[in-house]
């Protein structure tokens, strides 16, 4: 605390003649020192606002600027992402050959305008070399457009809209967490198997009314079509993000109940939906699936002692899958560091920092953007999510990380308290089989809008609208 | 005779009437209350509810228009159409922040040819027109005007995504250079329709938003493919936009209706149960009463042996009545038996006296004559015949004597008689017959027992009973005498292991002139019973056909009382 020490010296000099006052100041100093020590010994408090981690600005080989929500319903994602970044920085610190990273994290507040402005400030004021993070797909894609415009590498760690890597993909955008396509491609295969066993016919979708939900629904439809699953669509429901009350939608679902309800709500939204749905007969009338985020550790904690019947869940990382040494170590280290078990966002942020560091090592310098892009394209990186025999890698064509996906159902399991249920009865879908086909990539990228063209500059391509 | 209308039937009818009447009254009361509830829920508060809902929707549009006016009148806004890079950063920030409203997908700019030229995505932006404008068009969408604002939509997403509407205003004319265009808020339609949420009356009132195109949207913003039944027209929100609604009081009243149905079902079951119960009761009661009637009729027709079956302990009034009936029949049978016996005895006594008078004297004369002839008869063969005649005269004389004894019984002088003396006399007197029939007689009991009766008559009775027992036995049979005290009575049992009697014979065996032997007069047992009763005793016979017979004689024991009163 250099600032505090200077002030202390100044005050003791000016008050030297008065012993009593000197004594009080000394006591205050001791108290402050003791308080600082005490605070550092207490469990970590949730960070609010800007946080700087890793190397100091003058020592850093690169500055990575990340944006996560630290307030509101999705604050826990930012909290766990920061803990994941700390774990990654710990690993890098123990490797003398690894680049020294300075990581700045600030609160995106889940607002695109706020995050875009923040990213601009990172670039202009903090000289950030790489952008990272973002939980909300809307925010992620807004910052992605900025990255494209500013020709700065953006490594997405948590937002999942597949549009970001397909239609909107560009040279500077990479993502190291699985996207809506991966999870829903696995989900479609799960539903296909389920249809073969129980003959379900009617399907409904409920997702947040923003980029992520809309793309998740489109991905699910395309994946179901690819797998030849025939179904009757009974409804699509679009509550707003952070909707506090789902009763309207639950009532509508109960009035025209599907056999399968695929939900793409995440975090506190999904928990709130489950809590409200549990008070009705919804789970008796239909099976509820959430293939992308539903198996998040915090959601499992919120399920309490007993999960509603018929839930089918997955997430981008699980504390109990895969049962590999690397995943066990990651979960245990995270627990030692933070006193809790990680949600999937932690693994994404952890992967993001490690991938950036590895790319800098391969490129030689973070300022050589082209070399960085080349290093990231096809970068292989072993992550906690990888089952034995597989190493995650970034697909050079889509810049999307390729990973396996496991889908399970909640089972009583108290190995990771306070969760009383964890996913089990896994069905694992290997990474290669979940990659979007070349035809699909072409179809998705074959839209009239040029993916590299910023929509705000699309005047020349605008069509007559009326 | 079968009753025309049974008592049980009347009770059944009365109970049924009560049940049906109660249910009818309850149902009427219920219907009145239900109507009242319906009226209160769906009637009185309906208009206030609908007006509140319409106000919320109108207010939402008004707020969006107000939000839009802030932008459309901003002097820098035309720069978005004229020269985007010239838009000051502060204005861009303002537009981005406004676009980030949770109720908007974004903010759109249109040039003077109504072409979309600029899009500012908000937090909820997705798909067209933000990432891909190929599918995005305003063509064909309804449009209405509210003051200087144009409300366009709703869109037709057909399940691919949520519906939306556009609220658009012309940009303020800034003069130089001349820029004409408009700015629009791309609004989540669900943000509008969700305001139709009716918190407390969700089950009663279902509002739907009717669009200018005639579509019907539910509260989630989805288009209804089939309009609901009984749709009512509600207040207008905007020109061409109104709230239609369905009052489905049935949903909230369905538990009450179910309860009503349950009440009717319960009443039906109760009525049916009552009918079945009373039918079963009537059947049981009729059967039991019929038995009573049969008993009374049997008694009336002279069958004094008819008795009703009744449990040992009375269960109900019918059992009490059956027991009373049986007691009455017992007493009646006893009384009639005694009366008949008395009359019979009176007739028999008169008859016997007459017969004795008319037969005995001639018999005595005949006997003397036969004896005289017998003495004078030298021919042995004829003398034997006369002896036979004399024997028959003696037998006839005995019969007459028995008849006289039975018809005019004379009570003996009661005195203390030791039972062993009676046993000894009787066994001695019958020993000859026993020897002849090779039947063994044994006796047991307390030798100190003594009875209070006429010794001669008791001995006569016991000899009579012993003789009957010996004759009932086959060769080698056993007759056993046993005496024991039973309170103030002495019981004397004469038991043989002879042929016994069937029930019919047993019932008639004490009747006068009833005999199963050819040489018998049929008066021995009758006289015995008569003598025992004259001595204050009772005679009972228990016999099992093929196993033997026990005759129990119960006589007063000799004690201080009867000896003193003597």
UniProtKB/TrEMBL annotation, chain A:
Entries under InterPro entries matching the protein: BCAA_transport, Leu-bd, Peripla_BP_I
Keywords, sorted A to Z: Signal
Keyword Cytoplasm found: no
Pfam families: Peripla_BP_6
Matches recorded under Gene3D superfamilies: 3.40.50.2300
Region spans: Disordered: 437-466
CDD domains, per the entry: PBP1_As_SBP-like
Domain Leucine-binding protein: from-to ranges: 63-404
Extent of Polar residues compositional bias: 449-466
Family membership noted in the UniProt record: Belongs to the leucine-binding protein family.
Listed name of the protein: Amino acid/amide ABC transporter substrate-binding protein, HAAT family
Organism of origin: Marinobacter daqiaonensis
TrEMBL record, chain B:
Tagged with keyword Cell membrane: yes
Top EC category: transferase
Key words, A-Z: ATP-binding, Cell membrane, Kinase, Membrane, Nucleotide-binding, Phosphoprotein, Transferase, Transmembrane, Transmembrane helix
Locations listed in the record: Cell membrane
Listed GO CC annotations: plasma membrane
EC number: 2.7.13.3
Membrane topology designation: Multi-pass membrane protein
Highest taxon, organism lineage: Bacteria
Record carries keyword tRNA-binding: no
UniProt organism field: Marinobacter daqiaonensis
Protein name per Swiss-Prot or TrEMBL: histidine kinase
